[in-house]
């Protein structure tokens, strides 16, 4: 009876699984995301804590056996500043935030981004901790003076529930952690001018670390004081673990708010010569890493097109079916985020475009062009990450059979879809089971899935379409300006 909790950007979910990995009970509730003028995106820690309490209490009330542990995962990046008691000293700054766009562009021009990439294998972007903390150090230094820790969503919740100031190695991986040593690289911290703020970074927890629910956390969740709590990895690695990614070369596509493309590897080698983008995420297993390319072009783009066209998200599938592969000649670049793109390249000025439109086209063609362009972005990411094995997929985007087929055809490979959508919570539970020495059958937990095969003639067509996408992207990058 381990309750897995996935604290997403816009939704918090709690799930309990049976002994073979099938969800028994689940609950979810939305989190508030505040989009402010100037590309600012913030969240309220107390509101997020409230969502955790809501879903945990709801699931626990349905159980006919005692809860044995709480396993947490959630969104990564951004900055969640707290005092020694775990209270926020300012609203949390989301990974979606764009206030540091100009600073990031300066770091790219000055070579700072490449220096950090050379040291840690992490490509910085406006919503990462380095950019946000440096921005605050200039514009809100008094806030950093009041803070005791600058962390992330999951460890902010852990501090409130257990009193522990900690961070998982996966969260710490971007951008200051050397993934091979699992320690902070002081040169990377110095490169972004934050050595004097080094004390705000919590030391990464040891593998299989377990914390305990304190009195305040117990009262908040309605669970026993002293209950074991595990913290991480954050949602990207947790989803890979929950989906069944095991062998080097295997990958996972998460079609969520982030279009996260990850490939498991046993080598975190980076020479700093490539484009400074993506990251190597440390996993719970020392010596294993996820080479991640988390693009900014996920389902938020679909939400935008639905609002623009006045349609429901559930109407995307039928529209995709009405337009042929290639969207009747309409082409798109999907970079709609106000903070640009972060993988497989970093450019805060990246912006979307549609081309090839005429009076003969309808909204089905526009929707299909956008969905195809996001699939092309996924292929670009996986090529950079080194996908060579089996591919899994999860996230809200793969609930659409039509869009999932586009992903399979553009990538030219079959995609394994776990039947249970709560793979992030599932991964957190499996990590907790390992930490608590609770045995489980890995094969049974990974067996509940279906496979979407690609259509060979469509894959051949999209091979040419991908070349056109790459040419359009190269041309557009020469024109983007902040």
From TrEMBL:
Its EC number is 2.7.1.27. One of its GO terms (molecular function) is erythritol kinase activity. One of its GO terms (biological process) is D-xylose metabolic process. The keyword Transcription does not apply. Residues 289-435 form the Carbohydrate kinase FGGY C-terminal domain. InterPro entries: ATPase_NBD, Carb_kinase_FGGY, FGGY_C, FGGY_Carb_Kinase, FGGY_N. It is an enzyme of class 2 (transferase). Residues 1-242 form the Carbohydrate kinase FGGY N-terminal domain. The keyword Transferase applies. Keywords: Carbohydrate metabolism, Kinase, Transferase, Xylose metabolism. Belongs to the FGGY kinase family. This is Erythritol kinase. It comes from Amycolatopsis endophytica.
């Amino acid at each position: 009876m381990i309750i897995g909790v996935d604290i997403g950007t816009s939704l918090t979910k709690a799930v309990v699984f049976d002994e073979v990995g099938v969800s028994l009970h689940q609950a979810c509730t939305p989190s508030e995301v505040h989009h402010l003028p100037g590309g600012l995106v913030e969240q309220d820690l107390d509101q997020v804590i409230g969502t955790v309490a809501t879903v945990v209490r709801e699931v626990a009330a349905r159980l006919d056996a005692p809860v044995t542990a709480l396993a947490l995962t959630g969104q990564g990046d951004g900055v969640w500043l707290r005092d020694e008691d775990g209270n926020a000293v300012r609203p949390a700054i989301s990974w979606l935030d764009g206030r540091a766009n100009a600073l990031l562009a300066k770091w790219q021009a000055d070579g700072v981004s490449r220096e950090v990439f050379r040291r840690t294998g992490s490509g910085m972007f406006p919503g990462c901790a380095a950019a946000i903390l440096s921005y605050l150090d200039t514009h809100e230094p008094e806030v950093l003076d009041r803070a005791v820790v600058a962390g992330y969503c999951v460890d902010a919740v852990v501090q409130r529930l257990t009193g522990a100031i900690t961070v998982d190695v996966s969260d710490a991986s971007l951008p200051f952690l050397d993934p091979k040593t699992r320690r902070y690289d002081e040169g990377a911290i110095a490169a972004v001018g934050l050595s004097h703020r080094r004390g705000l970074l919590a030391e990464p927890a040891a593998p299989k670390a377990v914390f305990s629910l304190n009195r305040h956390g117990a009262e908040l969740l309605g669970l026993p004081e002293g209950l074991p709590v595990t913290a991480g990895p954050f949602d990207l690695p947790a989803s890979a673990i929950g989906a069944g990614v095991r062998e080097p070369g295997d990958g996972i596509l998460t079609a969520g708010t982030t279009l996260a493309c990850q490939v498991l590897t046993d080598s975190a080698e980076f020479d700093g010569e490539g484009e400074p983008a993506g990251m190597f995420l440390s996993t719970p297993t020392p010596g294993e890493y996820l080479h991640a390319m988390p693009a900014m072009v996920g389902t938020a783009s679909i939400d935008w097109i639905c609002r623009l066209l006045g349609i429901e998200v559930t109407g995307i599938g039928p529209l995709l079916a009405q337009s042929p592969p290639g969207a009747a000649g309409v082409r798109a670049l999907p970079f709609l985020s106000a903070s640009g793109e972060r993988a497989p390249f970093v450019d805060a000025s990246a912006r979307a475009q549609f081309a090839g439109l005429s009076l003969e086209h309808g909204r089905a063609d526009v929707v299909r062009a956008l969905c195809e362009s996001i699939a092309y972005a996924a292929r670009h990411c996986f090529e950079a990450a080194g996908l060579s094995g089996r591919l899994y997929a999860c996230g809200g985007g793969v609930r659409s059979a039509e869009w999932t087929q586009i992903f399979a055809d553009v990538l030219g490979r079959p995609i394994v879809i776990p039947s249970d959508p709560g793979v992030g919570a599932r991964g957190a539970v499996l990590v907790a089971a390992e930490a608590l020495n609770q045995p489980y059958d890995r094969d049974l937990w990974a067996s509940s899935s279906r496979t979407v095969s690609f259509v060979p003639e469509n894959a051949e067509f999209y091979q040419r379409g991908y070349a056109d996408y790459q040419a359009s992207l190269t041309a557009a990058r020469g024109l983007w300006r902040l």
